[in-house]
């Protein structure tokens, strides 16, 4: 059993220092990434209570987050058992807390104040999963689930306290699932290029139906992508998306999945809400983003038409019209060789002006998807 307390502290510390999104940082951990993410989000749910405890080292250091994580564990389950394989840093931090911190206020807090969810706990079940075994594992953890309209996507009542569900699937928001679900609704096999792929959830989801090549420019994010995807026989490329588009050979791919950098305005109460708690700000110039989105989508469509691509999806985790419908309208005006496909007709929330597109407008789970078909 890895020291997830240290891993969660490392992830929160890096998140506070703007190294990356909390989920991506947790997924980059060597062992039990899902358990690390579950613990990290639970700690942040309880952060206002934890940071008020007198005696902790309030300097936003790695040591500070280690203390915060272990205080949360103490409040919910007691300090970790000494028989566990705990790192030297975790053992030292426990000793510090016992000697220097008044733990009584934590004992007096009501559990209801702790398990306040950041967002719905969507879980994508692997196609190979035995549902009976999955249900039994949930029962053992005292967790229930609600079925969504999609067979392999459910909502868990809470995050599991350990990594016992990783063999059955992975946590992935319903919005993030939509681009691949859109493709799967119109084709059931083929070759797919995921252009801006890290941290890899969509590539992994797509690999259950398609032969996938995943591209990522940023070296740190590429390492996360490679770690997650190569074991699933996904080809990973560390390159600029524009260069990768230029290198596409004739009939090399059937589909392109494009989920470029966006404002993330649809994920307000996930990483953004956590960032606000830690005073992490990241302003993005919307006009520059939109220019980039238009440019890369137009490039994918132009080169795609020349190289035999049949479908291209464009998605964002933004709710802004400027990044979604307006981008679609721009590229359709510029390139007449493509048309929109009416996807996921059973999905009720459609595009603002183009009903072929789909939107997700759940709080903290905003998403937009458009699928283009070559004429």
Automatic annotation (TrEMBL):
GO molecular function: RNA binding; RNA methyltransferase activity
GO biological process, one term: rRNA base methylation
Listed Pfam families: Methyltr_RsmB-F
Domain of life: Eukaryota
Domain SAM-dependent MTase RsmB/NOP-type, chain residue ranges per copy: 98-375
Cleavable signal peptide: none
PROSITE patterns: SAM_MT_RSMB_NOP
Stretches of the chain forming a coiled coil according to its record: none
Active site: 317 (nucleophile)
Protein name, as recorded: tRNA/rRNA cytosine-C5-methylase
Species assigned in the record: Hexamita inflata
């Amino acid at each position: 059993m890895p020291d997830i307390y240290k891993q969660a502290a490392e992830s929160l510390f890096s998140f506070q220092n703007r190294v990356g999104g909390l989920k991506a940082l947790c997924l980059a951990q060597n062992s039990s990434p899902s358990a690390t993410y579950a613990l990290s989000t639970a700690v942040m749910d309880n952060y206002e209570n934890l940071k008020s405890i007198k005696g902790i080292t309030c300097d936003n250091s790695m040591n500070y987050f280690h203390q915060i994580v272990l205080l949360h564990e103490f409040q919910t389950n007691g300090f970790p058992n000494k028989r566990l394989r705990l790192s030297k840093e975790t053992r030292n931090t426990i000793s510090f807390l016992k000697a220097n911190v008044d733990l009584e206020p934590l004992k007096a807090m009501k559990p209801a104040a702790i398990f306040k969810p950041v967002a719905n706990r969507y879980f994508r079940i692997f196609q190979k999963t035995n549902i009976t075994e999955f249900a039994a594992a949930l029962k053992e953890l005292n967790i229930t689930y609600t079925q969504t309209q999609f067979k392999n996507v459910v909502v868990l009542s809470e995050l599991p306290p350990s990594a016992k569900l990783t063999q059955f699937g992975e946590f992935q928001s319903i919005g993030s699932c939509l681009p691949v679900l859109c493709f799967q609704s119109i084709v059931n096999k083929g070759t797919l290029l995921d252009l801006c792929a890290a941290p890899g959830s969509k590539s992994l989801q797509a690999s259950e139906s398609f032969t996938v090549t995943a591209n990522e420019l940023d070296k740190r994010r590429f390492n996360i992508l490679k770690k997650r995807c190569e074991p699933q026989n996904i080809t990973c490329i560390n390159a600029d998306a524009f260069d990768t588009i230029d290198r596409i050979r004739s009939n090399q791919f059937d589909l392109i999945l494009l989920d470029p950098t966006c404002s993330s305005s649809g994920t307000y109460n996930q990483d953004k809400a956590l960032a606000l708690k830690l005073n992490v700000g990241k302003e993005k110039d919307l006009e520059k983003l939109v220019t980039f989105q238009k440019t890369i989508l137009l490039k994918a469509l132009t080169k795609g038409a020349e190289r035999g691509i049949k479908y291209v999806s464009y998605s964002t985790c933004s709710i802004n019209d400027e990044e979604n419908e307006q981008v679609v309208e721009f590229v359709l005006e510029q390139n007449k060789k493509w048309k929109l496909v009416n996807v996921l007709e059973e999905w009720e929330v459609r595009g603002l002006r183009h009903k072929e597109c789909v939107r997700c407008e759940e709080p903290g789970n905003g998403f937009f998807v458009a699928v283009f078909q070559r004429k």
